[in-house]
Amino acid sequence: MILKFCGFKTKSEVLKLPTLNVNMVGFVYYPKSKRHLEIEQINALAQFVPDGIDKVVVMVNPTFQLIKKMLKQTDINGIQLHGEETIAFIKQIKLNFKNIKIIKALPASQNIIDEIERYRPYVDLFIIDTPSKHYGGTGHSFDWTILKRIKQSVPFLIAGGIDANKIKQIETLHLNHVGYDISSGIETNGMKDKNKMLAVIQQLKGVQ
Question: Locate the N-(5'phosphoribosyl) anthranilate isomerase (PRAI) domain: which residues (predicted)?
Answer without folding.
Answer: 4-203
